[in-house]
Amino acid sequence: MVWIVAENVESSATSELAPMEDAAGSPANPNRMQGRAPIFSRRARLIAAFAAVLAAICCGLAYFRWLDYSAQASRSAHRDTILVTPFQNLSGDSTNDYLSDGLTDEMITRLGQVYPQHLSVIARSTAMQYKGGHKSAAEIAREQHVDYILEGSFLRQGNQMRITAQLFSARDQGSQWTEAYDRDGTDLFAIQRDVTDRIAKSLSRELLASTAATSVASSPVKPEAYDAYLKGLFELNRATPGDLEKSIGFFRQATEKDDHFAAAYAYLAYSYNAAADWTYMSPVDAFPKEEAAAKKAMEIDSALSDSQLAMAEVLHEYEWDWAGAEKAYQKALLLNPSSVVAHRLYAEYLTRAGRFEEALSEIRRAQQLDPASLITSSYFCFVNFHARNYESAIKGCRDILEIDPHFLPAHDWLADSLVFAKKYEEAIAQYKKAMEESGNASYFLTGLGMAYAMKGDEKQARRVLAELNQRAKQAYVSPYELAETYIGLGDKEHALGMLEEALKERSSEPVYLASAAEFDSLHDDPRSKAMVSRIGFPESALTITATSKPVPSR
């Protein structure tokens, strides 16, 4: 680095002297050089040389001070990383598996809020690949490049619970501490709080100044409510229609057993949101309940990241309050920067707002926190698809399906991308695969109808429409999705009617309408413009054009 400084100083001096040398004594003017007296005396030249050396030393000192400052800034910005391996169930009873997953999820969440400026927590999907304890802490630390590993196990016998936790330091290649907790099995919440606070004390004093400054304040939770909450988390992570219904039931139980349990209300809201987004429930049934649960979570604890995130989803998808939603997403991330779900949901918001580069940045951050997560990786397909980068989306989805051929979101976004890339036969095959993987869900059947319509196969498209109309007599079918098939058939009147119906329902899907590729032919229609105006899109979504790759809707 010293040579760089010296090079810069020399180059600067040369550039300043070159014009004078050319004027006074260049080969082009030899006579002027010979007939001219020396400009400086010997003493003056010594003083000038000394000044040049002094200037170089000052530059060097300033440079090294800058290096030291940069190093200090880098150290202060460094965030240690911790991975929580799944708590091992030593009970020999598989009905307690929900405790293993629930304890792991909750520990990840609590640690993410302990000292968010300096501690990153690897997310659930990556942690869960180590379930079963087949690798040592040292191996896991090397694979995931983390600073700490928290290992845990539990043994439940009747009403008694023994939880053992051990903190492993990758730097020191050894255990920081091991602790066993023998408690009443109904006191899981208190045990978890104790383990988290012990970790906060054990991490570097320089990193976490004091327990008082880093511990997350938590109101006591009734044990039976906490148990129901953990069961809800277990079912929510499975994400099939039946599991979502079970998760809603468990979270409702948790709120009924403890009316001041903010996290239970937040996750109840999120379960209703997921059910509506996947059209497993109608928005008329789901969104008012989601809103009520999110408002209750905020009323109890607005400093909880999950409360802010639940409210952000309501503001965005139900109330269409774009500015308010963005503030809530950012607040959720400020409270817990390690929340992968918050990064993903904010990326969805940014995508719908037409801010694709920012959306990709959020997904990259989520992927750093959860490198093994297929759903996180699949969001690169999601953003590229909506940005109309169809080939990039297709490649990304296919890469994911090579890892897991049954991964439903990748089938969905691959099918959508193939439709708009005009690879209709492949798209139809993918929609059929998605229907198979989802248990014949109507959401994917509507995609199949759109693919047939855009291919020009009117007979098959109308056959799908007839089946969907029949299904709508017993279960919810999204009018927005039906509009996609109608527009593919060139039936603008029916398409506009279905879109109007979607807005009346306050469905979440119209948040794509401003730049939906399938509805390009409607964008100049006054009725379509009126709908877009009612949704209140930000300017970044309204200014997207086909040449700048706008967002298709699905």
| End-to-end C-alpha gap | 52 Å
Rounded to an integer, what's the Rg over CA atoms? 30 Å
Portion of residues in beta strands equals 5-15%
Alpha-beta classification: alpha/beta
Oligomer class: single chain
Largest sheet: 6 strands, mixed
Low-pLDDT segments, ≥5 res:
1-76, 204-217, 545-554
- How many strands appear in the DSSP assignment? 6
Structure description:
The protein has helices at residues 2-25, 30-34, 42-77, 97-114, 124-128, 137-144, 188-202, 211-214, 223-236, 241-257, 262-277, 283-300, 305-318, 322-335, 340-352, 356-369, 374-386, 390-403, 408-420, 424-438, 442-455, 458-471, 479-488, 492-504, 526-535, 539-542; strands at 80-84, 88-89, 119-121, 148-157, 160-169, 174-184. By secondary structure, it is α/β, with parallel strands linked by helices. Strands 1, 2, 3, 4, 5 and 6 form a six-stranded mixed sheet that branches. The longest helix has 36 residues, at 42-77. It is globular and about 65 Å long. The protein starts with a helix and ends in a 12-residue tail after the last helix.
